[in-house]
From TrEMBL:
Involved in the assembly of lipopolysaccharide (LPS). Required for the translocation of LPS from the inner membrane to the outer membrane. It comes from the Bacteria. Keywords: Periplasm, Signal, Transport. Residues 176-192 have a biased composition (Low complexity). Residues 170-201 are annotated as: Disordered. This is Lipopolysaccharide export system protein LptA.
């Protein structure tokens, strides 16, 4: 097996990104542009056309979504996008102002294990407000919000050259960074002591 296809498991403290715990107690809300189908016998729901799913701070957008309810009351979601419009996912963290955001051609979400699987040209990032703190990309990214572990796989469906996985970690701002990086203040202008008005050298 080529090395870039071997799964890479990360348990990086700086990328610990526990999903907001309160979301687990919130109901799912699903909406779409096109008519949907609910199969009560098989506990399966299908939605198409600009599907939006929310659950507390969680928001998922896709072109098509299948939702299956397990016999013990958990939900399994399978979402797919279209060319030029991948599935997008966003969920707040317990840390105020931080969120997990990602996109991929397909996405699977399991409420029993609290895992999100990004499949095909996958990119996931942790944001602090509007700034990106960390970002990972690969063919497949699996995020387990309970253990705070990301699993990355490379391959032909990776957005990176040669199918490699990629991790970018931004440095944390340190006290005094703003002052140190600011340009020096401009010196005040003073009148010349050698030049005289009306004369040229």
């Amino acid at each position: 097996m080529p090395r870039h296809l071997i799964p890479l498991v990360l348990a990086i403290a700086t990328f610990a990104a526990q999903a907001e715990k309160a979301d687990r107690l919130k109901p799912f809300t699903l909406s779409s542009d096109k008519p949907g189908q609910i199969d009560n016998v098989n506990q399966r729901t299908e939605l198409q056309g600009n599907v939006v799913i929310t659950r507390g701070s969680l928001m998922l957008r896709a072109e098509k979504v299948y939702v299956r309810e397990t016999p013990d009351g958990y939900y399994q979601l399978s979402a797919s996008g279209v060319a030029g419009q991948p599935v997008s996912f966003r969920q707040g963290r317990d840390t105020p102002g931080e969120s997990i955001e990602g996109q991929a051609e397909q996405l699977e979400y399991d409420t029993r294990t609290e895992t999100v699987r990004f499949i095909g040209n996958a990119e996931v990032r942790r944001a602090r407000g509007t700034a990106v703190a960390e970002q990972v990309s690969g063919a497949v990214i699996v995020y387990d919000s309970r253990t705070e572990v990301f699993t990355l796989e490379g391959g032909s469906a990776s957005p990176n050259p040669n199918g490699r996985t990629r991790i970018v970690m931004m440095p944390r701002a340190q006290p005094g960074d703003d002052a140190a990086s600011a340009p020096p203040a401009a010196l005040p202008l003073k009148p010349s002591t050698t030049l005289q008005p009306g004369k040229s050298s």
